[in-house]
TrEMBL record, chain A:
A family per Pfam: ABC2_membrane_6
Source organism (scientific name): Paenibacillus rhizophilus
Name of the protein: ABC transporter permease
Keyword Protein biosynthesis: no
Keyword annotations of the record: Membrane, Transmembrane, Transmembrane helix
InterPro entries to which the protein is assigned, alphabetical: ABC-2_transporter-like
Stretch forming the signal peptide: none
TM spans (from-to): 21-44, 50-69, 118-136, 142-168, 198-216, 228-248
Keyword Transmembrane: yes
TrEMBL record, chain B:
Transmembrane segments: 21-43, 58-76, 116-136, 142-168, 180-204, 237-255
Protein name: ABC transporter permease
Record key words, sorted: Membrane, Transmembrane, Transmembrane helix
UniProt superkingdom: Bacteria
UniProt organism field: Paenibacillus rhizophilus
Length: 260, 267
């Protein structure tokens, strides 16, 4: 843990060397999801509602997922650009060090510029919460925080799976982005608007539903039956992350250096 | 002219080498197309209001957008040119016996076309076979289709002209990241990449109409669906020509200015 913080402070200082570029990028990062959110806003002003979901309810969903995504992009970026480590043979160096590979890859990169994106999603989240008549209880606050945390774990799991693929394919694959970017696009809307099979896939295989749609029902008091179950569902993200880590360990054991 | 053609041809052949990337691209675009369409289907399901576009038109619009993404998306950039300017290799480019603007234009054009040629046909077959309401529909008439091809071509040229303007701006800013990112994001929104222009509020439509971006995406695709009728489309083609002339003229002017006072970055 201490090692990880050390990595972070080094990376932060190195990124701050290019100050103007840093701020411009952060600012730009603010705007990318902003245009998507503007699209969402205009759609609601045109259509009024989305299968019984109001604008602010959807915005809450959007805020949670985008916040989880931007945080995971900050922290797990090392796995996202992992293919470059394998291609250049740099990964050999990590292997000979007496620390876990996961911590080292995590610490190899940290995008501070993603804070722009984070701020934007926080604004959306705050705005949505402000406008929704939610009767807050301690459990609900906890659930909301677990939704974001669970989202981070799921995105992290997918990033790690993608990185593991590099052990065999060397080059990174575009297809991986399908699950991260695509998953983000899907999960920013309440999942029940989609086709039944799609909903099932994103609830039981990749549990985006467990961190956005289902606990959202609990926050809005729309659950049928036991509320507590819905409230604790974000924990399912851990069930997703564990096999991903196992696959990573398996991949590391089968790693063959490119030798360059 | 022959020189520019061969530059374009070389780039085109290079682009065709990345077949696995193209395959992955097809998958990604199919997936994203599906997500967007499912969202629209959900929106249209419950809506009784009079809408400016039918669901069928929106679905076709989205598939066309996914098919020709490489042609019309503003954010596709050529990192080579950035590095040429900021890294100082621009000096070599200046030694070439041809105009820099035309050279870069040919390069950008060929990169875009080669990226799309591999992708759009398999994707077209796939989306033609999809069941209702997810499949693409055919254009209402041959005229609409021909007008669409023409407007898509002009749109492509306009996109290249706009991206060249972005490149040229680097001569002054020297940092390719922030400013270009913002122009590209705003431009894509105003082009109708996030949602079709007719679905935007009126004030936004007015803004979009007064800028060149919508002529690259929104216009050709709506000509295809017949949402813009033939007579109106002809008028639109004239406006496209006008923007093209204006943007290339501006680009030529600026690049000559930039080159007169260019500083070759050392190293």
């Amino acid at each position: 843990m201490q090692l990880y913080l050390k990595y972070l402070s080094i990376l932060f200082r190195s990124q701050m060397q290019y100050r103007t570029s840093f701020w411009l990028l952060t600012f730009g990062q603010f705007f990318i999801p902003f245009s998507v959110f503007a699209g969402l806003y205009f759609m609601f002003s045109r259509f009024g509602e989305l299968q019984g979901w109001s604008f602010f309810e959807t915005a809450l969903c959007f805020g949670v997922i985008h916040m989880a995504f931007s945080l995971s992009e900050c922290f797990v970026r090392g796995f996202d650009v992992f293919s470059s480590l394998v291609v250049s043979g740099e990964f050999d160096r990590l292997l000979v060090r007496p620390r876990s590979t996961i911590v080292q890859v995590l610490g190899s990169k940290f995008e501070f510029t993603r804070f722009g994106r984070l701020v934007q999603s926080a604004v959306v989240l705050g705005w949505a919460l402000w406008n929704l008549p939610i009767a807050w209880t301690p459990l609900k606050v906890l659930t909301l925080m677990m939704m974001v945390a669970g989202g981070i774990l799921i995105f992290a799991g997918i990033f790690i799976l993608n990185a593991t693929l590099c052990f065999w394919t060397v080059q990174g694959l575009e297809v991986g982005n399908l699950l991260t970017d695509g998953g983000r696009e899907m999960a920013q809307y309440p999942l029940n608007i989609y086709h039944k099979r799609v909903t099932l896939f994103f609830t039981f295989i990749i549990p985006f539903g467990c961190v956005s749609y289902l606990p959202l029902l609990f926050l809005l008091d729309r659950t049928q039956g036991h509320g507590l179950l819905y409230a604790l569902l974000p924990l399912a993200a851990i069930l997703f992350l564990l096999p991903c880590l196992a696959v990573w360990q398996f991949g590391v054991r089968h790693y063959r250096s490119t030798g360059s | 002219m022959k020189m520019y053609l061969s530059v374009g041809k070389l780039r085109f052949v290079t682009g065709l080498q990345y077949r696995t990337a193209a395959f992955a691209g097809i998958l990604t675009q199919l997936f994203f197309g599906f997500v967007f369409i499912m969202v629209y289907v959900a929106f249209y399901n419950r809506s009784g209001a009079q809408l400016p576009m039918t669901l069928q038109e929106v679905v076709t619009y989205i598939w066309l957008q996914q098919m020709f993404l490489g042609l019309i998306a503003l954010y596709f950039r050529d990192p080579d040119i950035f590095q040429l300017i900021t890294g100082g290799n621009i000096a070599y480019e200046l030694c070439r016996p041809c105009g820099l603007y035309g050279f870069w234009f040919a390069k950008l054009l060929a990169t875009r076309v080669s990226g799309v040629v591999l992708r759009c046909f398999p994707l077209l077959v796939a989306v033609l076979l999809l069941p209702n309401p997810y499949g693409i529909s055919l254009p209402p008439s041959i005229t609409a289709f021909l007008l669409f091809l023409l407007s898509l071509l002009l749109g492509l040229l306009i996109v290249c002209a706009i991206s060249l303007l972005i490149y040229i701006s680097i001569f002054w800013t020297m940092s390719p990241t922030g400013s270009t990112l913002m122009v590209a994001t705003a431009g894509e929104f105003l082009a109708g990449m996030i949602l079709p222009i007719p679905l935007m509020p009126v004030w936004m439509q007015k803004l979009a109409n007064s800028l060149p971006f919508r002529w690259t995406v929104d216009f050709p695709f709506r000509v295809y669906t017949g949402h813009i009728a033939a007579a109106e489309a002809l008028e639109g083609l004239m406006i496209q020509l006008f923007w093209l002339a204006l943007l290339t003229g501006l680009g030529l002017l600026l690049i000559n200015r930039a080159l007169r006072r260019v500083v070759v970055q050392g190293g």
